[in-house]
Amino acid sequence: MSASYRFFLETADQPIGPGHPAWAVPLPVVRVPRPGAAIGACTYGDYFLGVRAFLETIGREAAARALRQKGMAPDPAEWRIFLVKHGEHYHPARVEADGAGGAGEWVVNVAVSDAARELLRREHAILSALAGRPRPFLPEGYGWGEVECRAGVRMGMLLGEWFDGYHEFHLTQPTDGPPGMVVWDSAGGNRQLSAVQRAAVYRQVAYIPTWSWKGSRRSAPGTTRPGISSCATARGR
């Protein structure tokens, strides 16, 4: 039996379908709209139908692997697709599945522009190269591919592990003070970090590529491995 699909903007109280005013609106190709900025060829409707096509065709095997990893059957009863946000390069979707064995959620990173699709392809190659190594800081990538949202217009997609409870950190330049850092938190509200919290963020950001380079080796004697707790503190948890 084929899965049913439901589409939403950011939250479950924002359903979207062919009758929605935004369905035929082009996706933005830049995160911050600017006068004269290019208009994307893919619409919101293309986006949602494209993610569905990915899960049903070129990404079907990757989706089945992701489902089995959570103890679920590879043919869920329903998929729910949420457009999380418009990033500088990607338009990530959070996809939820219900079926035999329970429920789960993942991310489908969607790249619309040529440059974004190439970046997504490279990121998939990097995640694939790290496959099989312990990597608690990096999401698992299950599969990558491209689908046509319309004749001659393609979208790149990468199905990956969804990291729940993580936030983005962005540098800020107030008009009346020194540079700072804000944590984006849709649930608890965006907030500025203290100097101590900013230092913890930089320390952990530096540690992640170092750990990835060295693999799963333990810290050398006399060195300090930044703990997850300091990052949790920086996240304000």
Q: Write down how many β-strands occur, each being a DSSP E stretch of 2 or more residues.
A: 11
What is the CATH domain class of the largest domain? Alpha Beta
The CATH superfamily name of the largest domain is Phosphorylase Kinase, domain 1
Examine the coordinates and then state which fold CATH places here, giving the name of the CATH topology of the largest domain: Phosphorylase Kinase, domain 1
Q: What is the CATH architecture assignment of the largest domain?
A: 2-Layer Sandwich
Low-pLDDT runs of 5+ residues are 216-237
DSSP helical segment count: 5
Q: Give, in order, the helices and strands.
A: EEEHHEEEHEEEEEHH
Structural class: alpha+beta
Which sheet architecture does the biggest sheet show? 6 strands, mixed
Q: How far apart are the termini?
A: 42 Å
Number of domains: 2
Could you please describe the fold and organization of this structure?
By secondary structure, the chain is α+β, with helices and mostly antiparallel strands. The chain has helices spanning 44-56, 60-69, 114-129, 195-214, 228-235; strands at 4-8, 26-28, 39-43, 78-83, 93-99, 102-111, 141-150, 153-161, 168-172, 180-184, 191-192. It folds into 2 domains: 4-161, Phosphorylase Kinase, domain 1 (2-Layer Sandwich), CATH 3.30.200.20; 168-235, no CATH class. The chain has 5 helices and 11 strands; from the N terminus they run βββααβββαβββββαα. The longest helix has 20 residues, at 195-214. The chain starts with a strand and ends with a helix. 24% of the residues are buried. Mean pLDDT is 82; it is low at 216-237.
